[in-house]
Amino acid sequence: MNSENMVGLTAAAGFQIGVRRTITLSQEKVWELLTSPQGRKLWLGETPTILFEKGYTFCTKEGINGILRVVKPNEQLRLSWQPASWAEASTLQIRLLPAASPGRTTISFHQEKLDSMQRREEMKVRWEAVLNRLMELKIK
Questions:
Q1: Which 3-state string (H, E, C) describes the chain?
Q2: For the Activator of Hsp90 ATPase homologue 1/2-like C-terminal domain, which residue ranges apply (predicted)?
């Protein structure tokens, strides 16, 4: 199969995937949810603690390693993301975008530098599940 037929393949960033969902919460509340121990466990995994500041290095109990590259409270997180079984790190970006109606925010997960179409599909399933669970957490 040539690269023209491969969904999500870019010349510069390898395979990539993006998923997004709009939630009825302000950007500030979504940030609180994402960075809370409960919310963080959904998308990042279990970490004893994490400082949301540029350059902070983390390792989760699940074996995911990374470095926070960009931290803009209420707006954006960009980090390297590398499970122990991966040969290379990917880049994960989470953006909180104001939605058209007030009091609503679009949460966007975008991951690039994935090494295969199969990995892209795995991560698509993961981020969709994370968004679903974040929505459920918000309701509680």
A1: CCHHHCCCEECCCEEEEEEEEEECCCHHHHHHHHHCHHHHHHHCCCCCCCCCCCCCEEECCCCEEEEEEEEECCCEEEEEEEECCCCCCEEEEEEEEECCCCCCEEEEEEEEEECCHHHHHHHHHHHHHHHHHHHHHHHC
A2: 26-136
